[in-house]
Known about the structure:
The complex is a heterodimer of chains A (about 280) and B (about 550). Chain A has 2 domains: about 15-125 and about 260-280, no CATH class; about 155-255, no CATH class. Chain A has helices at about 5-10, 15-40, 45-70, 75-80, 85-105, 115-145, 155-175, 175-185, 200, 210-220, 225-280. The model of chain A has no long low-confidence stretch (mean pLDDT about 85). Chain A has 11 helices and no strands. In chain B, helix 12 runs antiparallel to helix 15 (about 415-430) and helix 13 runs antiparallel to helix 14. Chain B is elongated.
Amino acid sequence: MAKKKPSFLKNWVESPSWFRAFLIGVALCAAAFLANIALSEVRPYNAWGLTYGTLAAVLMAIVALYGLRRRTTNVALKLRLGRAQPWLQFHLYAGALCLLLTLMHSGFHVPKGILTWWLWVLSIWVTASGLFGALLQRWIPTILASGLGNEVLYERIPDLITEIKDKAKTLAETCADPVWDFYKKNLARALEAPQPRLIYYVDVTGGIQGRMKQFDYLRRLLSPEERDKLNKLEALYKTKLEIDAHFTLQRTLRGWLYLHVPVSLVLLVLVAFHIFTILYY
Amino acid sequence: MAKREKKGTFGAALLSVSKKYIFPDRRRAMMAIGGLAGLALLFFFVADVLFIKSSLTSSGPLSSYHATFEKQCEKCHDMQTHEVSSDNCKACHEKVSRDFALEVYTMPAHYVYRSDSTSRRNRASEAEHPCHTCHPEHLGRETLITVVPDSRCTGSACHNFGSLTQAESAKRADGQNKLHPQFDFIAQSIPDDSTLIFTHVRHVDEVMKTKKLTDIERACLYCHNPQPDGKHFDAVEYDKHCDLCHLNADAKTERLPIRSGDAAGVVTLETIRASREPGTSWAFYLNPNEIRPSGDKLVKQPLYHEDPWIMENLKRTRRLLYPDRGLADLLKTSATLSSLKDRASAKAVYQEGVQVLQDYATGLRGQPQENVQGDLAKIDTLLSRMRRRLRDQPATAADLRLFFEKPEVNPQLDAIQIRDYNDFINSLLSKETCQKCHLLAEASIARVRKEQNTLMRAEFDHRAHVLHKRCLECHTEIPITVVVNDTVRVNDFKKPEVEKKDRSVMQNLPSIDNCTECHNPSQSSNKCVTCHYFHPNKTNRSNLLLYLD
């Protein structure tokens, strides 16, 4: 019988083996740091501190290769660099370990120098934004798949919205005055463009059922033919609302990278300069 | 029909399926933002290195001690190698220099410091630690760079016994701290090198009665007078502490024979005056009536501490017994120290020798001859240099040329003559007067170590501790007190068990465990520098002053 994963691991840890390796790494770092405290002083410039710093820099360089790997898929396939998933796992856990080593390098103190202060703060920022992104990657796809009837690609959303708008307008023009008035008053503006809303972070359906109620009131007053057209308008509107939910959440899923990637590049540049100044002086 | 209608669409709204493959958005903008920001920062920092003197790239502000050099990297850094050299430190901290002599900030000075082993003075220069290894900079304006962590001392091969910082976790089964060593005098059972016949309990009892004291510890302070800083005590002085009871007006010598030829005996005051030997000017000021005949012998009354007539006769007899004492002949008391490690005593011996030479020179000043006055000027210069050297450099017992392991007895004397001389010395310094307190060694009064510092390598501040513990709570080895009916009294010095313990050789000091009761990780500071100094006394003047000589 297969061993059952603990619920925590099941929900949040994609690869338990990588997670265990990470925990071992953390334990080794903690043991080294305790030995450092017992045997010597905690300073960035002594043998202990330089070892932490060097390891952190090496890890950071390897971790940064993930970005390169993502942007050179064809080359990676040719060179048989393996699937993207292990690279991502390494990127995640080694990045977290890199922050731990950086903090050990600084003795868990805020550095006094301007460059070192920026390195310290950016290291925390990059790791925190990376972990935030990993959290979003686990959370948003799950809720998108759980409560919406349609799945759409983020890149297609503008086209689909235009299509819905056009279809709805064409349909509404063939309708009787009550439906046309209803369309102009309640739907036309809502179908113009994607509308991100904060409610989708809390409730992915975003109160869609409540909005559909207005169709029910009108439907009772219409002939069967007009009622059929109204049903089609309702389907278009509902789809638009679901696309709005996709737009809101998928935009977040992509947007967090702006918090992570540019700052990571700045950090890499500053780390390189930090190493240069250490060697120079 | 419905199937045909739905073909190429998806969802209830029948939206069209894409006719081509959709590629994810490129993230060039994101990369461009990061790259440009990184390059801008890099440019900024490089410009800082080249034109703004690296204030941004330094690992932190300089401490307030060196803050004025914040923008003057070249003051500390070698501009070629960019390293920090101790040579740059000596521009201000000239005591770092090894160019001229043993400077207080050098490692050899640390080796000699209190170890008194001059053989360690010449340790190779590669053992020298650059200043910045212990006093790192760029750690912030408020950083105290003189506070050096214990690991600098204990983490190396130098003091690898550890420190008090782990005292609690490092107790051995016998309760001793395995990290910090026990004090030498306890670990090696080294007795107090007192050369006095002295009992504490008897004296405390006597002082309390004489001064009508009720607090026993006030009796302690009668002799142990704290120095103004409260850390240490002044040296015990006869005139201040002993004179009240000892050598009263009725103190006199035994009947002493007058020397005839080489036979043992005293030299009369008239003979001393007539000899006009160096250092005998006192003879012209001494009241001749103090030395009176008693039959064919002489008696001196009253007697003084370091009585010049007694000391002169002792010196003349000693010269007969031990003719080859060399420079030690300048000293009033024994040239042999009980502890060769005692630098304070060694320095005192030197100072005494210099003072005697100064007295000899003073005695010659009245002579008008040109050659004598010329020699006196040279002698004054030499004595001045000797004094300065004594003040500035750690004189050690190993340096002293005044010391002899044991002077050799005059080989021309036979056993009977030697016995006669020793008998004479015993009657000159009788057991009722001098030998009541002093011991004799090689026809000399054994040198008394007046200084009260016992710890060789550590500093102890009495003032910092006396509010927390009373004197007799720590100094418990000699049973000075006894509790009778809830009253603390002076112990009975006549009791055999008290008499057995109350001897001057007793080290009446607590062990290291007494220190670790409070100096442990959870209470008072237990860092090395709390009790130990790495550098010798930094107030010693700089050797730059040598140029002024």
